[in-house]
Every structure is written in structure tokens, then in C-alpha cells.
Amino acid sequence: RHDWKYEPIVKWTSLVQNISWGAIILLGAGLSLASAFQTSMLSESVAKALGFISNMPQAAAIIIIVIISGFFTEVTSNLSTATIFFPVLDSVATSSGIHPAFLILPCTLAVSLAFMLPIATPPNAIVFASGAIRVIDMIKTGIVMNLIGFLVIFLAANTWMPKIFDLNDQTTAIFLNMTTRII
């Protein structure tokens, strides 16, 4: 038909007014930061700084990774923290003879512990912007929540995670042998 007129599902003006542009910019900035870490080889510097973990017992390495990534995510987005830490933890674990999942799984959970600062996550920023809570109140409550989260993740990483994901000496040896042959 010649008299048919196109009607968009969503009009641009409605889209512009109703999209959370701050969240989109925050995610984009996080991805840009992670890309800059890798392009500038800063992630290699982080890997060297975390190299001391390779000489530690596995439980100590896990708690250190959980604490470092948990506090790092307070100043960057969860996505960028994970993007920065995962390749680093993979190389640290492989060079230590540990299955990378022993470090990456706890880190995955720890980067979600962004409770202390308004810049940590968009929901934190929304709560702070309401004016109902001060930064110092967020920090006090966030530290307690982070410490509880660190403890829960540490206990999970050393008890049920290895059983659920079948992480033992045999699977670690197979994994390390496979990566050695592929490389």
C-alpha cells in the first residue's frame, strides 16, 4: 500500500529521556580502563606485583586475592576489575602449579563486593545521590559487609567450590598438561 506510514516502536526523544546514560558510560569507562590496562602492559606489572602469591599456600593466596580484588572493585567497575584480574590470576596460578579456577572463582565473587563507595556501582551512586546517606556511613557499613563477604568467599573457596567444580590434584595436573601442550 502506498499510504502506509512507518511508526517506530520507540521514539528517540523517549529513548533519550528514559535510558540510564550514567550506567552506560560507567560500563564503557570500565571496559576502556581494562583495555588500557592490557594495552599499556600495566596488567603485566600487576602480575609481577602479585607474583609473591606463587610462593604461598593456596588458602593464603585465595584470601589475598579476595581482599585485593574486593577492595579494587570499590574504585573501578566490577567488569573492569574482573577483566584486569582474570588474565593476571590465570598466569600467576599456572606458573604456581595451581588450577586457575582456585584463584579466578573467588575473584569472580569478590569483585561483586562493591558496597563502600558511591562510585563502586550505579546502585551505590543512586543511593548516595538521594542525599539520605553520607559517604562515611557507606564506608562504615560497606567495610562490615566486605569483611563478611571475604569470609564467606574464603570458606566457600576452600570447602564446596573444589567439590562442585571437581578441582583436585588430578584435574589440575591434566589442565596444566593441556595448556603446556597447546602453548
Automatic annotation (TrEMBL):
Keyword Hydrolase: no
Family annotation (InterPro entries): SLC13A/DASS (IPR001898)
GO CC field: plasma membrane
Keyword field: Membrane, Transmembrane, Transmembrane helix
Organism superkingdom: Eukaryota
Entry GO MF terms: C4-dicarboxylate transmembrane transporter activity; dicarboxylic acid transmembrane transporter activity
Membrane topology annotation: Multi-pass membrane protein
Region forming the signal peptide: none
Cell compartments where the protein resides: Membrane
Pfam families on file: Na_sulph_symp (PF00939)
Protein name: Anion transporter
Family: Belongs to the SLC13A/DASS transporter (TC 2.A.47) family. NADC subfamily.
Positions of transmembrane segments: 20-37, 49-72, 98-120, 141-161
Organism expressing this protein natively: Adineta steineri
